[in-house]
Amino acid sequence: MTTQFTRHLVSTKFSPPRIGAKHLPRANLLAQLNRIHQCRLALVTGSAGYGKTTLLAQWRQACLKAGADVGWLSLSADDNGYAGFCAALFAALQRLGIPVETDMPLEDTSAVAMDTAIAAIVRGAEALQRDVYLILDDYHLVEASAAHKFMQKLLDHGPGNLHLVLSSRVTPPLSLSRLRVMDQIVELDSAELPFDLPETRVFLDENLGAGKINADELGLIQELTSGWPSCLQLIVIMLKSRPDTRSILPHLVWRSSDLQTYLTEEIMAHLPPELAGLAETLSIFRRFNTSLAESVTDIPHTAELLTRMEDENLLIIRVDSDDRSVWYRFHPLFGEFLATRLERRGSAAVRELHRRGSRWFADNGFLAEAIRHASLGEDLEFATSVIERAAPATWSLEYLSPTLHLLDRLPEETLFKHQRLLFLACLTVALTARPAKAEGWLAHLDASGTPTHPDVSSSLPLIRAAIAVQRDDMQRVIDLLEPQRDAAMENPFLQYVLLAELASAYSATGQYAKARRLLDAHPIPLADRNNDMALVAEATVITTLMLAGEVREAERTGSLLLARSVKALGRRSISANLCAGGLADAYYELDRIDDARETIANRRGLLQSSAPEVMIRASLCRARLDLLQESPEAALSFLQQQAGHMRGLRQERAVAHMLAEQVKVLLIKGDRARAADVSASLDELAHAHPAEQGYRAEFPAVAALARARVVLTDYPDRALAALEITRSHAAQFGRGRLLALVDILQSAALDNMERSEEAIASMAKAIEAGHRLGLIRTLVDEGALAGKPLARLVQEKLLQGPVMQYAQDLLDKFSNAATADATTGGSRRANAPRNQAVLTQREVEILGLVAQAMSNKRIALTLNITLETVKWNLRNIFSKLGVSSRYDAMVWARKHDLIQ
Fold first, then answer.
1. What is the pTM of this model?
2. Residue 721: which CATH number?
3. In angstroms, rounded to a whole number, what is the distance separating the alpha carbons of residues 323 and 12?
4. By mean pLDDT, which of 497-506, 699-708, 813-822 is the weakest?
5. Beta carbons within 8 Å of 296's beta carbon, 6+ residues apart
C-alpha cells in the first residue's frame, strides 16, 4: 500500500504557495515555531486571512535552508472524509521517506486498522534515523471523526522523530492536555498572528514604497485592521490603484468590494444561519457578553454559540474587563461588515435592537453605553432619563461622546426641561472646545432659577471655569475655584474636574508650587487610580513640569501615566490623549524623535479639540517632527492648517504660537521676506492683547521672540530689545525652556555686535540651564546659533564638571556645519579627537546594521523605530562625517573601531 493512494493526488498538494518577493518575515513567530525541534506538535490557529499559510511556508523555507527534511500537505474539501484524509497523509509521509506499508483498506476505520497504520508509520520513521517534519495546512477542512481519532493516535503513539505542524481556522477536536503538560506542543493563535505596528510599517513600506505612508496614516491603518494581514494586503492594493483614497481610508476599506467578497466567501459562507444571524445582531455593540446577547436576541443558548464563535476564531476577541463577565468584541472591519448585513433587516429592526441593548446596559450599570444605544435607537426620552437618574458617583468622561451624540438629536426645548442633563450638556461642550455653546446653555440654566439638584447648584463654577479654560482666562479659573478648593464634594468626578482645572490655572500663571501642593493635598484614592477624570487631573502634572522646563521628570511621570491610561481605558481615551500630548513634547525635547512621533501619531483630538495649551504643545511638536523628518514645506503646511483651525475656534493665543513657529521655519528656508510679513501679523495680534494675565500674557512675548529672530542678523540691537520683552515674561512665569532659548538668541545678537565675551557668557548661562533641566532640542534646533558658541565653550574648556560633560554630549548632536569656524578650529571634545566622538549611540547602532547589509526598512524593524527616523539619522551621519553614501560612512566607522 505504498503507491496506490498517491496515484490520483496532484503534486501541488505537497508544495506550499510561493512566497512573494515582498513578504514580511515574522521573526518572533518563526522563533516560537523553532521550538518544535524539541516538541511533537505545533498548532497554528487563526481566522481566515491571518497569514497562517504564509508563516508556515516561511518556516519551511528556513528549515530547508538549515538542512531539515520538511514535508507539506495542503488539505482540501476532498480530504474531509477518513479515506481521503488518510490517502493524502500517507502520500505526504511517503514523500518524506516514510513508506506506510499496510494491506488494510483505507476505508477501514477499526482500531485494528488504525493501529496497523500507526505501527507502519513508526517503523518507517525510525528507519530514517533523523528528524522529519510534516506540515498539514487547512486542517479545519477535515470533518471525519475517524480522521481526528487517527491523528490523536499518531500524536500519542507516533515516533519521536516525526514532528507534526497543523494550521487550522478552528481549534481541532484533539485532546492536547497531555502534550501541554509534557511541554510537547507549540501553540500560536489569533492573538499572536496579527502584525504589530513595526511589522505593519515594514509591510506597507515594502509594498508601497518608503515614506508613502506617514505616522498618522500608519497608526490609523493599524487601528483599523488590528494587524489583519489579508486586510493590509487589500489596503495596499487599494492605495496602489487609487492613491487618492488615503484621505478617506477609514470609510473605504470595509466597503471595499474585495473585502466584502472575502468575508462573504471565506467566513460567512461557512457559518450556520443561526450563528451568522447572532453575529449580525451583536455587531451593533462595541462589546458584548452572554447576558447581553440573551437579552437582545431571546436565544436561550447564546452562551454555547458565543463559545463556538470563539473556538472557530470568528474574528472575535476577548476584552479585558473589571467585572467577572467574559466580554467580546468583533474585529473592527468584520463588525462593520456585519453591521451592513444587519441593515437588510430594516431600520426599525435595528432601532429595536439598540433600544433593547440600552435597557440591558442601564439595568447593569453601564450608563455611557446605555445612553449611546438609546440615542442610536432614537429613544431620546429613555436616554434623557438615564442621565437624569444617574447617581453622581457614576459620572465619568465616558459620558462625553454619547452625550454629544444625544445633544445633536435632542431638541433644545427638551434639554432645557432637565436640569441635570442641561448641566452635563454645558460641562460636556465646555470640555470639548465649544465654549460659546456652553455659555448659551449656561444662561438658560441660570435663568431657570435655583437648581433642584444639589450637585448641580454647587458645581456651576466648574462650568464657568471650564469655559474660562477654553478662553485662556486662567486667572478667572483661579478666582472661581479657589473658594471651593478644599470643600468636600460627594461627586468624585466633579472633584477631579476641579483639581484638573485649578492645577492647570496655577501652572499657567507660573504658580508651580501651588499646583503641586494642590495635587499633593488631594491625593487620588487607590480605588480611583484608573478613574478617567482622576487620570486627567494627574496628567496636569506633566504640563506643569514641561512649563517649568523640568523635562526629565516630565518624561518619567508622563510615561507611567500614559501606560496606566492606555491599560485602564484604551489608547483613544481622553486621559491617554492628554498624557500623550505632554509626553510627546518631553520626548521631542530629549531628542527621542521616534518615540515622540509614535506617541503623537493618529491622535486627532490632540490637534483639534483639546484645551488650548494641549493643542498648542501637540501642534508644535508635530510641526517640528515634520521639519526634521519630512521637509520645511510639510511643517509650514501643517502650521498654516492649524492656524486656520484655531482661528475658527477663536483661540488667538494658539494662532500666535503657530505664526511664531512659521517665522522660525521660514527663516530656516531662507525666506526672510515672508518671515517678516508673518512676524508683522503676529505683532498686530500682540497689540490687541497688550496687558493680559496667565496664558494671555504670552502674546507680546511670543511676538517679540519672532521679531528678534527676523532682525537678529541685520539689527542685533533691536533683537536684544525684543528679547528683553520675552525674557521678562519667561522670568515672571518661570518658563525654563523659554529662558534658555532667550539666552541662546541673546548670545547670537551680542556676537553680531562683536561683544564676544558677553555673548559667550550668555551661552554658558543657557548651557547651565540646559544641563539643569535636561534640554536638548531647544539648543540643537537653533543650529549654528547655538552650535558655534557651544563648540567654543567646549574647546576652550570654559565649563566645568557635569556641565562640561553635558556640553560635550550635546555637541555630538550638532552637524558639522552648525559647529564650524569655532575659534580654535580643533577637536569637538576637549579630550578626544573629533572623529572618535562625533556619532551618537543610536547613530553607531544604525551604522552597525548598515554593515550587516540591512536595508533602511530592515533597520527600522530591527530597532523598532520609524523608517523616517532611520533616514533622519543617516542624514545626520553623512553630514557629521562629510560623506555621501552608506558605504563611506560604514568604512569610516570601521576605521575608527566604532563597529566591527
1. 0.71
2. 1.25.40
3. 50
4. 813-822
5. 281, 282, 353, 356, 357, 360
